[in-house]
Design goal:
heterodimer, A: about 200 residues, mainly alpha, 3 strands, B: mainly alpha, 2 domains, 5 helices, about 5% strand, rod-shaped
């Protein structure tokens, strides 16, 4: 992947029509899809009017392209989605119980976790899924140093904090195995903080 | 009414009630938890699962696919937007120091003792220093009216 050399310091808009199309077409397909779901029925009229609306939205309200895009690994995706829903049910039940029980909640904690992946898209997915699943809310993200700061509800002791940190890194690993490039999957083997920063950096 | 229909109704009712119960605990959490950061937990996890269950129950009970697609969209956008809004509110709350520090076991985001005592760029002008006496002393040292420690 040659994204590292290409992406740094170049204007995303000035790279020709083909490059722009590559980033705009998935977005337009998604917009047409949402339009069809909103109408609830399939018809040619819906398809055409949806395409017009999608074209208008992408031309009038342009978004910066996501550098690199995502590769989907079916097995990794299945593992990620499976864990996601199990964790969602588990953490919802846990938080519901903590609001109901007479003792209330105990101590909470704010931890900083060193991430290993270096892609905007993957870090966004990690942050979104972390807020929904294992008892944590993302407070802040340091993009340069690749750290996430999370608020953790109900920790008992320092060992508990460390186990939560391990859970965050496990979640990151599942996301990278579901959507990451081969480089990024290889970077998982490095210890946090030692992973190469410069090679294959997928950020503008 | 056939057996299949009544089984479907029972499943739908169970899902709707469970979802409503989870949304109720989200509301309870907002009242019972101590500060903004912990309340955000109540506002995201049980509430999102509650919405999902209600959507599934509604999709089972309502007839016709067009309603189902709409409910699917509601569920997807709920899962996409709830974490983002929780994150934005938590971040603002932390920077404005609406945090019960006495209930925190560790705080690795805090940059150090000295940095928090005086005003920093991120805070609003009306945010009080955490230790007013020390902050006053330090600002007088900066001005030169007190000798350096």
């Amino acid at each position: 992947m040659s994204a590292g050399g290409r992406a740094v310091g170049t204007d995303p808009g000035g790279e020709g029509l083909a490059h722009q199309l590559k980033h705009q077409v998935p977005l337009m397909l998604w917009l047409v899809f949402v339009w069809m779901l909103l109408w609830g029925t399939w018809s040619w009229a819906n398809l055409i009017s949806g395409s017009v609306v999608a074209l208008a939205v992408t031309v009038l309200l342009p978004l910066p392209p996501v550098i690199g895009g995502a590769r989907v690994h079916p097995v990794g995706l299945a593992v990620f989605v499976g864990y996601f829903f199990v964790d969602l049910v588990r953490s919802a039940a846990l938080v519901a119980w903590q609001t109901l029980r007479p003792g209330g909640i105990g101590n909470s904690a704010i931890i900083q976790v060193q991430m290993r992946t270096d892609s905007d898209l993957l870090l966004t997915i990690v942050a979104e899924s972390l807020t929904l699943v294992p008892g944590s809310v993302v407070i802040d993200m340091d993009r340069e140093r690749r750290t996430l700061s999370l608020h953790i509800l109900h920790v008992r002791d320092l060992a508990d904090v460390e186990s939560r940190r391990a859970a965050v890194l496990a979640e990151e690993e599942r996301v990278v195995r579901a959507f990451g490039s081969p480089d990024e999957i290889a970077a998982l083997a490095h210890a946090p903080g030692e992973a190469p920063v410069a090679t294959g950096r997928r950020t503008p | 009414m056939s057996d299949v229909d009544s089984v479907r109704d029972v499943v739908a009712v169970v899902l709707l009630l469970a979802g409503a119960f989870l949304c109720l605990t989200a509301g309870l959490g907002l009242v019972r938890f101590h500060d903004v950061l912990t309340r955000m937990h109540a506002g995201t996890k049980p509430q999102v699962l509650g919405i999902l269950l209600i959507m599934i129950g509604g999709a089972i009970r309502l007839e016709g696919w067009s309603a189902t697609w709409m409910l699917l969209l509601v569920a997807v956008f709920q899962m996409l937007t709830a974490p983002v809004s929780a994150h934005m509110i938590s971040r603002v709350a932390y920077r404005r120091r609406h945090v019960r520090r006495d209930l925190l076991l560790v705080d690795e985001l805090r940059t150090g003792e000295a940095a928090d005592r005086l005003y920093r760029g991120d805070e609003p002008a009306d945010a009080p220093p955490e230790e007013p006496a020390t902050a006053l002393e330090e600002s007088r040292r900066d001005e030169g009216t007190l000798p350096p420690a």
